[in-house]
């Protein structure tokens, strides 16, 4: 869907981005991760030509983006700005309607789509007539997402989309984001400096440092097949949480015994992460075991917490010593 080849951008003597090459597959969520100043935002903004590269090429859907008009390119790409970037003197409805207006949409079409999206993002209709400062940070962030999604673009660029939120609101919106069909179909490039956010939301992570790509891969590859010491050190502090959030019950399936312990009624998918599975145990300490099911094979296993942690330990050993 997007191919970035040998792209560089300098500001005076600062090499913001230095000869980077990567591909974004259709429908995937690629997260650009790295510390402040490593070149993430510059990379993102070159994809919608808010910044022009000094050299290299960016091909979008088979077409070199430098060939057409930037405005036309931007109409095909949704963009969620850092710090939301709503117009303060526009109502929420007017903020959402900015791009539809540029595209000369009929007012009725804009209203219909707006109403559809605010329901999906759980905003009250009354907020449409309010101004940005009258909404909470979380609500403003939702408006920023709606504004980027209104024309249903196939590609979405997101710059620290959850950056301005407190931790609780942030994790709420992140889960909604993951669950929404609107996002699942899209090709997304997202910038974050938050390692956990990257691991929770990314199909693949592009870890950057000093304008260069250090490693691109699935979260599990960064954890268990780090390209070099930089990657290992970058993840070191949060390693255990990242493993809990990245590894699923399914990954441990072969290492889990069939337990005979009486389990609670109902079952859960083995696509649950270890983190989510542990949350089940901590939410009701009277339950000795939970039933997990492999939705492909319909095989289920009753798993006690001790079995889960022991299988996790074996999995870590296998992955690390493999
Ligand atoms: P990130 O998004 O990873 O924080 P940026 O892409 O914003 O990084 O910036 C990369 C580097 O380029 C930084 O050193 C930054 O200071 C520099 N830079 C970015 N934009 C400009 C600009 N307009 N003028 C001068 N230097 C810039």
Kindly describe this structure.
The protein has helices spanning 40-47, 70-75, 92-96, 98-102, 107-120, 137-149, 167-179, 181-184, 195-201, 219-224, 229-236, 239-246, 274-283, 305-321; strands spanning 2-11, 14-24, 29-33, 55-60, 63-64, 77-80, 155-159, 187-192, 204-209, 212-217, 267-269, 289-293, 300-304. By secondary structure, the chain is an alpha/beta fold. Helix 9 packs parallel to helix 12. The longest helix has 17 residues, at 305-321. It has a six-stranded mixed beta sheet with strand order 6-7-8-3-9-10, with helices on both faces. Helices cover 39% and strands 23% of the residues. A hairpin with a 2-residue loop joins strand 9 and strand 10 (212-217). It is built from 14 helices and 13 strands. Bound molecules: adenosine-5'-diphosphate.
What portion of residues belong to β-strands?
A: 15-25%
Order of helices and strands: EEEHEEHEHHHHEHHEHEEHHHEHEEH
Helicity level = 25-40%
Number of strands: 13
The computed structural class is alpha/beta
**Uncertain regions spanning at least 5 consecutive residues:** none
Please state how the strands of the largest beta sheet are arranged side by side: 6-7-8-3-9-10
The overall pLDDT, averaged over residues, is 90
**Major sheet details:** 6 strands, mixed
Termini separation comes to: 33 Å
Instruction: List each distinct ligand once.
Output: adenosine-5'-diphosphate
Oligomer: single chain
Choose one word for the global shape.
Answer: globular
The helix count comes to 14
Question: What is Rg?
Answer: 22 Å
């Amino acid at each position: 869907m997007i191919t970035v080849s040998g792209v560089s951008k300098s500001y005076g003597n600062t090499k913001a981005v230095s000869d980077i090459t990567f591909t974004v597959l259709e429908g995937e969520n690629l997260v650009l991760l790295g510390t402040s100043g490593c070149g993430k935002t510059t990379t993102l903004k070159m994809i919608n030509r808010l910044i022009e590269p000094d050299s290299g090429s960016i091909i979008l859907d088979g077409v070199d983006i430098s060939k057409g008009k930037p405005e036309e390119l931007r109409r095909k790409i949704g963009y969620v700005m850092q710090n939301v970037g709503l117009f303060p003197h526009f109502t929420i409805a007017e903020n959402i309607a900015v791009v539809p207006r540029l595209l000369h949409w009929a007012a009725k079409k804009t209203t219909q789509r707006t109403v559809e999206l605010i329901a999906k993002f759980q905003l009250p209709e009354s907020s449409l007539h309010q101004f940005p400062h009258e909404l909470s940070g979380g609500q403003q962030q939702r408006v920023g997402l709606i504004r980027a999604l209104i024309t249903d673009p196939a590609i979405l660029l997101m710059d620290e989309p959850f950056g301005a939120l407190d931790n609780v609101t942030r994790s709420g919106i992140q889960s909604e984001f993951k669950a929404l069909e609107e996002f699942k179909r899209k090709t997304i490039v997202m910038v974050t400096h938050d390692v956990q956010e990257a691991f929770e939301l990314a199909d693949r992570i592009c870890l950057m440092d000093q304008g260069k790509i250090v490693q691109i891969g699935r979260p599990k590859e960064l954890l268990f097949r780090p390209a070099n010491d930089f990657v290992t050190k970058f993840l070191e502090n949060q390693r255990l949480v990242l493993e809990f959030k990245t590894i699923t019950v399914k990954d441990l399936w072969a290492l889990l015994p069939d337990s005979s312990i009486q389990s609670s009624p109902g079952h859960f998918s083995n696509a649950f992460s270890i983190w989510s599975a542990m949350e089940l145990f901590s939410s009701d300490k009277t339950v000795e075991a939970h039933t997990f099911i492999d939705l492909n094979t319909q095989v289920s296993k009753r798993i006690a917490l001790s079995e889960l942690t022991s299988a996790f330990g074996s999995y870590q050993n296998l992955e690390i010593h493999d």
